[in-house]
Amino acid sequence: KQEVTQIPAALSVPEGENLVLNCSFTDSAIYNLQWFRQDPGKGLTSLLLIQSSQREQTSGRLNASLDKSSGRSTLYIAASQPGDSATYLCAGATGGGNKLTFGTGTQLKVEL
Amino acid sequence: DAGVTQSPTHLIKTRGQHVTLRCSPISGHKSVSWYQQVLGQGPQFIFQYYEKEERGRGNFPDRFSARQFPNYSSELNVNALLLGDSALYLCASSFEPNTEAFFGQGTRLTVV
């Protein structure tokens, strides 16, 4: 059974700081790993998708890496802004890619 | 282009009642998945449908059922509602399994 853990549960940083969010998973037989952003009471916004054959993906100030052998993924946010404040969730796709298993998220606050 | 649309956005039901939640996927997407998210937790997988067939089922009781229509829209039905069914219900669409998942804004269900 896939289990996904995210550390830290909460993080507060000053504006402009670079930061790393961590995601670990127990079943290395994942098809892909996806990072999402969730604002309070809202749905999920897809940030990055890394296929199992890939090592990293980049989109703007975001960079996500995947190491299947160690069961870890990281999301790097460069030059953080107050608008980045949200909960960040990672999810691994297993079961033929049909099921996303989510972590409990990292709640990020970027302060002025 | 329209994203994933869910209806209704909010719903209040009484214990024992039945509820139907609806989801329209992104145009061209053939896979729809349903997730339940309780406060402070990551989403939990309920069902996935692809090409109108059930492709995956999470650890939820038989009170939960779903279906996908010829136009790829989907319904999630929950019978005999319990207080514990109160949650944000999220629908995700993807072109096919193992591709990037895009989520709707969710339906907030409150059972009183």
What secondary-structure arrangement, pairings included, does this model have?
The complex is a heterodimer of chains A (112) and B (112).
Chain A (H helix, E strand, L loop, with lengths): L3 E4 L2 E5 L4 E7 L6 E7 L5 E8 L4 E4 L2 E6 L4 E6 L8 E9 L4 E4 L3 E6 L1
Parallel strand pairs in A: 2-11
Antiparallel strand pairs in A: 1-3, 3-8, 4-5, 4-9, 6-7, 7-8, 9-10, 9-11
Chain B lengths: L4 E3 L2 E4 L5 E6 L6 E7 L6 E7 L2 E5 L6 E5 L5 E5 L8 E8 L7 E2 L3 E5 L1
Parallel strand pairs in B: 2-11
Antiparallel strand pairs in B: 1-3, 3-8, 4-5, 4-9, 5-6, 7-8, 9-10, 9-11
Task: Give a description of the structure.
The complex is a heterodimer of chains A (112) and B (112). Chain A has 112 residues and is an all-beta fold. In chain A, 0% of the residues lie in helices and 59% in strands. In chain A, strands 2, 4, 5, 9, 10 and 11 form a six-stranded mixed beta sheet that branches. Chain A has a five-stranded antiparallel beta sheet with strand order 1-3-8-7-6, with no helix packed on it. The model of chain A has no long low-confidence stretch (mean pLDDT 94). By secondary structure, chain B is an all-beta fold. Chain B has strands spanning 5-7, 10-13, 19-24, 31-37, 44-50, 53-57, 64-68, 74-78, 87-94, 102-103, 107-111. The A-B interface holds A 4, 31-32, 34, 36, 41-46, 49, 89, 91, 93, 95-105 and B 4, 6, 33, 35, 40-45, 48, 50, 55-56, 58, 88, 90, 92, 97-106, 108.
